[in-house]
Amino acid sequence: MIQGVVLLAVGLSCLVGAAIIRESTAGPKSLEPQAPLLQMPFAASRASSEDPEGLMASLTEEYPSKPMPGLGKDSLDSGPSSDSSTVAPSPSASTNPNASSGDSLDPGKVELSLSAVSSPAPTNKPMPSPSSLAQLHQQAIVVDTHVETPLLITERNVKLLSNGGQVSLEKMGAGGVDVVFFSIFVNPYQYKGKEKSQADFIIASLKKEVQANEKYIEMAYSHADIERITQAGKIAGLMGMEGADPIGDSLDNLNYFYKQGVRYLGPTWSTHTLMADSSGQPKPRWKGLSKFGKMAIERMNQLGMLVDVSHLSDAAFYDVLKASKQPVIASHSAVDGVQKNARNLSDDMLKLLAVNGGVIGTIFYPPHLQAQGKADVKTVVDHIDHAIKVAGIEHVGLGSDFDGLDRPPPSGLGDASKFPAITAEMQARGHK
Predict the structure, then answer these.
(1) Spatial CA neighbour of 43 closest among 357, 290, 273, 258
(2) Of 273, 244, 275, 281, the residue nearest 80 (C-alpha)
(3) What is the DSSP letter of 36?
(4) What is the pTM of this model?
(5) Which of 108, 116, 192, 205 has the most beta carbons within 10 angstroms of its beta carbon?
(6) What tens digit of pLDDT does each residue of 68-100 get?
(7) Residue ranges in the chain whose pLDDT is less than 50
(8) What pLDDT score was predicted for residue 127?
(9) Longest pairwise C-alpha distance within the chain
(10) What are the phi and psi torsion angles at 384 (to 5°)?
(11) What is the pLDDT of residue 202?
């Protein structure tokens, strides 16, 4: 049964998107924060009351650093440390809009057309058992917690309706995507000193594209918005900010971007910020969260803005889990249990994420998924399966990083139209 927007694949015991934003923490009255974006079906698992395995106590332990990841915009641990002369990466290396090819599983032969966007509205009533894979996928509330399409809109002037990238309204419609988090990413090298104004430009450009296609998509700012939009047969679009460079050293900027509609923030990209250390630079600046970072986490909890732990150093991850009184997400990450990488979550991290009530959105970036960087649908589901075994099925979702991949995506997952392939592979492995 779909309960609100719980993001469960109906008929599959598999979470297909980030299932939480917050519970009912009230923010400052002057900001009038919205109602919780997504309700918490598993709040009882959080560590606020009991911690039978002593997981939260392990936060005080020291954890060894992991090896450096492979290259890529989203893993590109390209930022120079304070004593490094590393050349900044080219901004154009952050996207690969033409890398949308790949073998397709063709489950149910979902048509690549906008008719899929305007599918029958979901309800809270019990669903009949699906008679086909296509019906099974269509009944699911499918969420992608991280796409980089705003970069293409602002830097390559592409249109959201139809384009040569990995995400468009046409492709999302064909893939049965119901909710998508657009990443607001400002390259700290390219826009140094202009981070906030560039973030404003990206947000305005995205909203303009959404408004131009309001027949098929609307911006969502609350749980009620998501329900209303998806029940109308449209895609609900939300915003998450990748890297706190536009925030600078100001808590007021957190308030400002919350008002603009940003509903999660990753304190770092691949470079350290005033808020925290990144997994992308081996020499730490703060040894985790900075003092300002801890203040920022508290403010984000008050606002109802999710903390995104993807890209954080190990020490910063554990600091966030200690500091946050609300669930957190890893919007686009993979797992060490399948492929070790500085950007991937260890089993300890997955367990703590579950105790916190959080969710990992499984990334599609091949170097994070497989040592040789030649991933396919099965590889992605390997990571999903491992995360399910360690953290529990309620804490595992999808965070493709489409349009932010600088390598071809996994075979069979060339673009957003191919999401049914994951449902097919999950079903083939016995998930009901």
Answers:
(1) 357
(2) 281
(3) P
(4) 0.76
(5) 116
(6) 223 234 433 333 233 322 223 333 333 332 333
(7) 1-128
(8) 45
(9) 61
(10) -60, -45
(11) 98
Token couple for 208: 């303009």
SS3 301: helix
How many Å separate Cα 90 from the centre of its chain? 23
Q: Which two tokens stand for residue 303?
A: 């606002």
Phi and psi dihedrals of 398, rounded to 5? -125, 130
CA distance 269 to 171: 27
Residues 6+ apart with CB under 8 A from 408: 96, 99, 101, 102, 366, 414
What CA–CA distance (Å, rounded) separates 409 from 165? Answer: 12
Q: Which residues contact 228 (CB under 8 A, 6 or more apart)?
A: none
Per-residue pLDDT tens over the stretch 250-268: 999 999 999 999 999 999 9
SS3 string, 320-379, reads HHHHCCCCCEEEEECECCCCCCCCCECHHHHHHHHHHCCEEEECCCHHHHCCCCCCEHHH
* Residue whose C-alpha is closest to residue 432's, from 12, 132, 8, 2: 12
